[in-house]
Every structure is written in C-alpha cells, then in structure tokens.
Amino acid sequence: MALTERDKQIIDFERTWWAEPGPKDVAIREQFELSTTRYYQLLNELLDADEAIDYDPLVVRRLRRLRERRRRARYEGRVAQEPKSR
Fold it and tell me: Where is pLDDT greater, at 19 or 13?
C-alpha cells in the first residue's frame, strides 16, 4: 500500500504538532476534518505500514514506542487490579 497524501500529512503533523498553538484535538479537527478517534485509528494503521517507516523512520519508531508503552501500562494496570488467588 502506498502512502496517500493524507497519510503523509498525518505523519508530518505528528512530527510537529506540539509546536502549534492550542490543543492537539482542535488542530486535528481543523487540519484533517476528522474526529480525534478516527484520527488515532488512522494513525495506528499507519504505524503498522512499512511505507510509513520508509517515509519518516524517526517519527514512526517514536510513535510505535509510545504506543507499546501505553499498551504495556494498560496491561500491567489490569494485572495489578486483579485479585490474587490464594
């Protein structure tokens, strides 16, 4: 699958969004006309695409690491909340 122009714009946005004024969710709605939920669905699909890593390996690897940390934290939180068997 080749990256679309919007795919590239999403990756570029992730590289620089923090330098933009205002909240990220507002910028997502203004730039992409997407809900934040849909934006993150598309972003997660992109992170799994080899073409995305070819386009911008630093950003994609950073986002993959963040995603993995969040997944691990959610999993570890569930494990810690489960009652211990005796």
Answer: 13
> At 21, is the pLDDT very low, low, confident or very high (cuts 50, 70, 90)?
confident
Token readout for 47 is: 């992170």
Query: Phi first, then psi: what are they for 21, rounded to 5°?
Result: -75, 145
- Distance (Å, whole) CA 54 – CA 31: 24
Q: Are 24 and 30 in contact (CB under 8 A)?
A: no
35 backbone φψ class: left, alpha, beta (φ>0; ψ -120 to 50):
beta
Question: Which residue intervals of 1-86 are DSSP H helices?
Answer: 5-16, 24-32, 36-47, 50-55, 57-81
Q: Please state the pTM of the whole predicted model.
A: 0.80
Which residue ranges make up each domain of the chain? 5-81
Q: Which of 68, 19, 9 is nearest to 44 (CA)?
A: 68
Q: Which residues contact 67 (CB under 8 A, 6 or more apart)?
A: 44, 47
